[in-house]
Amino acid sequence: MKIDSINWQILGLLQSNARMTNAEIGRNVGLSSPAVAERIKKMEDLGIINGYRAELDFGSMGYQLKAIITLRAFMGKLKPFLQKVVQLDEVLNCYRITGNENIIMEVVLADQYHLEEFIDQLITYGETRTHIVLSNVVENSPIRRKIKG
Amino acid sequence: MKIDSINWQILGLLQSNARMTNAEIGRNVGLSSPAVAERIKKMEDLGIINGYRAELDFGSMGYQLKAIITLRAFMGKLKPFLQKVVQLDEVLNCYRITGNENIIMEVVLADQYHLEEFIDQLITYGETRTHIVLSNVVENSPIRRKIKG
DNA sequence: AATGAAATATACTCCCT
DNA sequence: AGGGAGTATATTTCATT
To answer: By the CB < 8 Å criterion, does A76 face chain B?
Structure first.
């Protein structure tokens, strides 16, 4: 499906504030509220829009540390790890990747003791490398229309 | 501020569907719609809720590749890079981190030619390492209340 | 595919507890 | 801090173009 100019505008608005009403979106893009509702529903049905998520402050929830942890799985330990990782509440995102490491994870942790405990859970699955996040340079940047394509 | 049990429920609902109405949230947690609105507004004002974002499908928008790229900045090149990276549309997230590399980025790209162009832009700032994302094991996992804390 | 209109649902403001 | 009432606004459905 081709995303037309109006849908790109709608997606831009929903990326900046997903709780914006259809009526308000309509005022921004020059459509009536039912027209906006229909376009959004279609993009949801087509899987262009996967969902709407509140973005929370980790510190307020008691997570003072964020870390990026890579894992180079031991022989035969990748599948067990994949089953385990979905149960770990600390893991925000986890990707299988190419390269020397198989796995990269973004995790939140209460403090350094929590980090230590967390890493200890991983040692049976493979060799880990931990990078503490110092600051966010870019965070959840909205996706824009490519110039070409 | 302490997040009470009802606010944790509200945050859980908003993480799974940020476009849920206050009335529907109220039905789930046993509060009236104005009470829900007041609680949400307070959490927004306190910075517990940072925003509401539509989650989009990268493939549908013409981005077929996702990659994790680390950068080990050359002497004096970190600051210029930090100014540059905020202008790069391909970068979804970028963190300063501890360890051998200074920077880690999550980027989306149309294809391998686009990846090549993108990496070429970075070589003046430092040494890069690229990992192609093969699959998502965990994606945007909601933050839950810690057992302790 | 969008509009306009009617019915329903929701949100907002204010006052009360 | 939350409930309830009243008003304004939004959503949904449907007929029409």
So the answer is: no
Please tell me the pTM assigned to this model: 0.95
Domain range summary for chain B, segments of one domain joined by +: 5-45, 59-132
Pairing mode, strands B65-73 and A103-109:
unpaired
Do B98 and A131 make contact, defined as CB atoms within 8 angstroms? Answer: yes
Q: pLDDT tens digits for B105-133? A: 999 999 999 999 999 999 999 999 999 99
Q: C-alpha angle B138/B13/B107, rounded to 5°?
A: 35
- pLDDT of A23-43, one tens digit each? 999 999 999 999 999 999 999
For domain B5-45, which CATH number applies: 1.10.10.10, 3.40.50.2300, 1.10.340.30, 3.10.129.10? 1.10.10.10
Domain A59-132 top-level CATH class = alpha beta
Contact A46, B10 (CB under 8 A): no
Inter-chain touch A58–B143, beta carbons under 8 Å: yes
